[in-house]
Amino acid sequence: MFRLLVLSDTHGCIRIVKAISDKNSAVNGVLHLGDGFADAQEVFPDLPGIYSCKGNCDVTGGGFPFPEDIIIQTIENVRFTACHGDAFSVKNTLRIYLETVRKNNCKIGFYGHTHIQKKTITDDVVLVNPGRGMAGEYCIAEFSAGQVNFLFFNL
């Protein structure tokens, strides 16, 4: 099983990211969906599986390489996309991002930007927002044998 810690919108709240890290030391990777992507890089410097997306508030990289707007990855035979969400107008509709997830042949679309923890299930795709990281909200995605279980938490 691969346990992926999913964060978004931490906005430089390193203390909160460290508290989340302390509660989740057994994760295999971290996905930060932007607006504070460097926070994950700083708190998890030795973790080999760190994935990051650029958010609309990420104007500097804090010394870390600037990430892409959208990423596509595969873990345990499950293909997913990840983005911050502002470029897909996720505050207004999930339809545009859902079409992008499908177009890229992915089963999951992770996004942030709205600051609302949410899992939306359609016929063939699951869209997941881990919530407002600066308030201690996050998600653990457990990948195993082509399946994914999503666990939502709030410090």
Can you give the helix content as a percent range? 10-25%
Give me the CATH fold name.
Purple Acid Phosphatase, chain A, domain 2
Question: Looking across the biggest beta sheet, what order are the strands in?
Answer: 3-2-1-9-10
Q: Identify the CATH class.
A: Alpha Beta
Number of helices: 3
The succession of helices and strands, N to C, reads EHEHEEEHEEEEE
State the assembly state of the protein chains.
single chain
**Overall number of strands:** 10
Gyration radius (Cα, Å) is 14 Å
Explain this structure to me?
- 17% of the residues lie in helices and 34% in strands.
- The protein has helices spanning 14-23, 37-43, 95-103, and strands at residues 2-7, 29-32, 49-52, 70-75, 78-83, 108-110, 118-121, 126-129, 137-144, 147-154.
- With 155 residues, the protein is of the alpha/beta class.
- The longest helix is centred in the N-terminal third of the chain and has 10 residues, at 14-23.
- The chain has a single domain (2-154), classed as Metallo-dependent phosphatases (Purple Acid Phosphatase, chain A, domain 2), CATH 3.60.21.10.
- It is globular.
Topology:
Layout: E1 2-7, H1 14-23, E2 29-32, H2 37-43, E3 49-52, E4 70-75, E5 78-83, H3 95-103, E6 108-110, E7 118-121, E8 126-129, E9 137-144, E10 147-154
Helix pairs in contact: 1-2
Question: What does this entry show, briefly?
Answer:
The protein is an alpha/beta fold. The protein is 17% helix and 34% strand. The chain has helices spanning 14-23, 37-43, 95-103, and strands at residues 2-7, 29-32, 49-52, 70-75, 78-83, 108-110, 118-121, 126-129, 137-144, 147-154.
